[in-house]
Amino acid sequence: MYAIIEDGSRQYRAEAGALLTLDFRATELGKRLELNKVLLLGSGADAVIGQPLVAGARVLAEVVSFPKVKTMTQKFRRRKNYRRLKGHTQPYVRVKVTHILKAGEPTPTEAPKA
């Protein structure tokens, strides 16, 4: 089973066990996120398409890490003694999809960690 979800004006294909890199949000490592904007649910030949969202469907994911991407911007004019270097670090949240739930399905309880 898979789902197409929307987060931060971008769409992602989520399957159980898949890793997704989402926009940063204030949360903690190991916390569970619930993504409610499900656009499509599919399993094999069956697909439920939302108009615009699938009512009651949701994707549960666990926060795995907080990666960052460093980008550098450089401006340079030859023979003019003009050089500018600017950097930016964009934070993200990497999550692992644990469950894809249809409308009316209960939230699975977490097993105690040993």
Characteristics of this structure?
114 residues, mainly beta, 5-stranded antiparallel beta sheet, elongated
What this model shows, in words?
The protein is mainly beta and 114 residues long. It has one domain (2-101). Helices cover 0% and strands 61% of the residues. It contains no helices and 9 strands. It has strands at residues 2-7, 10-15, 19-23, 32-35, 38-43, 46-49, 58-65, 68-77, 82-101. The strands form 2 sheets. Strands 3, 4, 7, 8 and 9 form a 5-stranded antiparallel sheet that branches. Strand 1 (2-7) and strand 2 (10-15) form a beta hairpin. The radius of gyration is 19 Å and the shape is elongated. The two termini are 29 Å apart. The mean pLDDT is 92.
Summarize the structure.
The protein is an all-beta fold and 114 residues long. The chain has no helices and 9 strands.
Give the % helix: under 10%
Please trace the helix and strand order, writing H or E for each element.
EEEEEEEEE
Mean pLDDT: 92
End-to-end CA span: 29 Å
Task: Estimate nothing, just give the exact number of structural domains.
Answer: 1
